[in-house]
Each structure stands twice: as C-alpha cells, then as structure tokens.
Amino acid sequence: MVDNELTLGEYLRSILGIITFFILLVLATPVILVLLILSFGELSNLVVERIAPLIAKPALYVIGIDFSVKVHHSEITNPAVFIINHSSTLDLLTILAMGLPRVRFVAKWELQYNPLFFLLGRLTGQVFIKRQKSDKAVATLQKAYDRIKRKKLSVLLAPEGSRKHPGVIGPFKKGPFRMAMDLSYPIVPVYFEGNRGLSKGGSLFARSGKAIAHVHPPIDTYGWTLENLEDHIEDVRKKYQKWAGVTSNSSETVRQ
C-alpha cells in the first residue's frame, strides 16, 4: 500500500489537506445553499464549475499534489458523457478540481451517508446509484435522462464502477456507454495520470507529487448499436490501457 511509503511530512500534509477540504466544504455549504435557494437551483452549474474547484484545489495543494488539466483537443466538448479511470480516492478531489462545464456526477449511493455530500449532491442534481444492483442503477440513470437532455447537461461516470478492481485499468461496465447512446452524446475520455501512484488506498493519505487530468478528444457514438457495443467498449478501454502503459486483456473487458 502507498500509505506505508509515506514520510512523516506527507502524513502530516495529508491530514492537513483532509482538514482543509472539510473546513472549506463546511464554510461553502451555507453560501451554496443560499445561491441554490434564491435561484431555484439554476446556479447549480456555478457551484460545480466555480465553487467546487475552490474547495478541492486548496486541499490538493496542502497535501502536496501539483494538479493540472491538459486538454488534448481544441476545447472541452459539451454536452457529453465524460468517463474517467478510477483507482484512487484522490479521484474525488481531482474530479471536483476540474470544474467541468455543466456536468453532473454519477456517484455511488454510499456517499450520501455523509450529510454534507447528501445535501449538496441532491440540491445540485447529482445522480446517486446503487452499484451492486445493476437493474436499479440503470433505472435511476434512465429517470435522469429527461432532465439531462432538457438542460443540456453533461454527466461524468467511471466505467470501472469502483476503484477496487483487478489490474491498472479494470473491466468496463456497459452503463456509461449505453447512456451515451441513449442521450446521443459523444464520450469524452478523461485519464487521470498520477492519482494511482500517489494514493492507492481508500483514504486521502497521499504522497506528494504531480497529477494530471488528460481530457482527450470526444468519441462519436453515432452508429453504435447493441450489437457492436462491446467492440466499441473494448476499443475505448484499450485507449486507457495504452495511456496507462499496460497490455490489454480482452477477457475482462466488459461487465454488466
């Protein structure tokens, strides 16, 4: 585990970073609530794009992580289905720090056990799913389609489903790709470089270092069908394996 390799200074910085994150979250919550109530929820995009980075970036800085975003395209496509590689708890901070335009996050149901995440997540229209129950997860996503399309929102999901998976790039679930097809959205792959190496554990204890969010060109889903979906998922996963510097393993490509 990476935690065992931390220096005393990195432990202390991580603790301070965690404290910084929650203090800023607590201080920002009343401001966010007032903005959302007065605007009848219309300022949700401002919260995600402007306020969330102001909470996450200082925490990353205190932990000792130099975080940056590199866009490998003329601009970030929107609306779209953004997908990420998920292998570290640091992903939570780097996702928020990106400030992606008009995005809503599809997150695990358990995050709502934190009352602040529950309150802010519900008020800003985030989507919480029960990953262990695929039928209910799909039903939850389908209910969100109308709102997503009507407001021209983007969504962000992790095809691996959980940070706990075999290999550097775990098997991909079909859900994010079916969602892109149903919404007629392109898929925008985001590859987090460095997160896994800095923190492999289930906490925000991390080594100091550099993390980069690579926003790659959009992938058009026009012409995708249920018959060729697995082939397209395989192609996308191979891209992630290439970026991660690992050899592909098609036997673990797709999960329900």
Walk me through this protein's architecture.
There is one protein chain. With 256 residues, this protein is α/β, with parallel strands linked by helices. The protein has one domain (2-255). It has helices at residues 8-38, 44-63, 90-98, 115-123, 134-150, 175-183, 195-198, 229-244; strands spanning 65-71, 81-84, 103-108, 127-129, 154-157, 172-173, 187-193, 209-215, 254-255. Helix 1 (8-38) packs antiparallel against helix 2, helix 2 (44-63) crosses helix 3 and helix 5 (134-150) packs parallel to helix 6 (175-183). This is 1-acyl-sn-glycerol-3-phosphate acyltransferase. GO terms for molecular function: 1-acylglycerol-3-phosphate O-acyltransferase activity. Residues 80-195 form the Phospholipid/glycerol acyltransferase domain.
Q: What's the arrangement of secondary structure elements?
A:
Blueprint: H1 8-38, H2 44-63, E1 65-71, E2 81-84, H3 90-98, E3 103-108, H4 115-123, E4 127-129, H5 134-150, E5 154-157, E6 172-173, H6 175-183, E7 187-193, H7 195-198, E8 209-215, H8 229-244, E9 254-255
Parallel strand pairs: 1-8, 2-5, 2-7, 3-4, 3-5, 6-9
Antiparallel strand pairs: 7-8
Helix pairs in contact: 1-2, 2-3, 5-6
